[in-house]
Every structure is written in structure tokens, then in C-alpha cells.
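pls design
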């Protein structure tokens, strides 16, 4: 009887150990599997990183491999002191180029005029630090700055982002509110010349 009890206890302990490893393995998988981050901020970081936000919103430095995001200015948008080269007349037209970008990919010229990548850091005066979650979601759904003001201009893919779930948009907003604030007053859009 005693041997049987020991066997039951041993098997029970082995079962508990196996179950705990399985649970621990699943928990680790949830922590490390992209798209299933444990917190909204972690999920937002994943979505921002994989969604290409740094492509336009982070200024670049040039290397032998081409432009590389300058992470010391992460998500701070077009530099306040950006110098735009002249666009030759007729270059952007229905039969010419549809758009041009500055060499750091933070400013774009097209039929809509000139757009500058916004500062989406948590800075309260020049970034998104004073935005509300509701205004951010409304912007992504409507293509209107702060959900009610001017149009969000190309190349910002608000139409695609607007198809994300509320939870994903809330996660992106939570992450952007957590990033280091960088004071950088991005220039206002320039309307097209008529």
C-alpha cells in the first residue's frame, strides 16, 4: 500500500511538473510571439515597429547602405528646420511623377501639396502628448487631424490603419504615449501651387 501511495504521489508530482512546464511554455510563447504581446504598450510597440511608422516619422541618417532611421529622434517627424529642394515645374503631373520625398523620407510633395511626417512622440506641445485616445482613433478612422481638423495627407496610410480593431488602435496610442517626448515643431502642410 505504501509503495502504491508513493507511486501516486510521484506520478502526481510528475504531472504537476509537466503541466507547469506547459503553462510556463505557453506564457513565454505569449510574451515573445509577435502580435500577442501581454500589455497594450507592448502590442502597440509591435504594431508601430512592424507597421512601418519609422519609415516616415523617424528622420534618417545616411550610411553606405542608404538611409537608416536615427533612433535618437525616433518618431519625432520631419525636422523643424527641414530645407526643401525646389521641385522643377511640371515634374509632378498626371503624366510625370506622382510624388517626391526628401532624402530622409519625412517630407513628401504631390498633387496635394507638401506634407510633413508628424511628431508622434509623447511631447505635449509638439507631439501627441496632449491628444486623447478618442481623437487618435477618430483620426485613423476619418483621415481628419485630431478627428475633426484638416485632412491627414499622403503618404500617411490612415485608410489602412483605420481598419485595425479598436484594441489595436488603443495599443498603438498607448505605445506612442509611452515613448520619449521629443520637442520638434513639424512644419505645417503647404498647399499645392495652382
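designed seq:
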Amino acid at each position: 500500500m505504501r509503495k502504491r501511495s508513493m507511486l501516486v504521489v510521484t506520478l502526481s508530482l510528475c504531472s504537476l511538473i509537466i503541466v507547469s512546464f506547459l503553462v510556463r511554455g505557453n506564457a513565454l510563447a505569449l510574451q515573445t510571439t509577435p502580435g500577442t504581446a501581454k500589455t497594450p504598450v507592448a502590442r502597440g510597440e509591435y504594431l508601430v515597429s512592424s507597421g512601418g511608422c519609422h519609415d516616415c516619422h523617424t528622420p534618417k541618417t545616411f550610411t553606405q547602405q542608404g538611409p537608416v532611421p536615427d533612433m535618437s529622434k525616433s518618431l519625432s517627424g520631419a525636422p523643424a528646420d527641414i530645407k526643401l529642394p525646389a521641385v522643377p515645374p511640371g515634374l509632378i503631373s498626371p503624366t510625370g511623377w506622382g510624388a517626391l520625398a526628401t532624402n530622409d523620407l519625412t517630407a513628401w510633395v504631390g498633387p496635394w501639396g507638401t506634407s510633413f511626417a508628424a511628431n508622434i512622440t509623447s511631447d505635449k506641445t509638439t507631439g501627441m502628448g496632449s491628444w486623447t485616445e478618442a481623437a487618435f482613433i477618430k483620426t485613423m478612422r476619418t483621415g481628419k487631424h485630431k478627428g475633426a481638423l484638416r485632412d491627414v495627407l499622403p503618404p500617411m496610410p490612415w485608410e489602412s490603419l483605420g481598419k485595425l480593431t479598436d484594441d489595436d488602435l488603443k495599443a498603438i496610442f498607448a505605445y506612442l504615449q509611452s515613448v520619449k517626448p521629443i520637442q520638434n515643431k513639424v512644419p505645417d502642410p503647404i498647399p499645392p501651387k495652382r
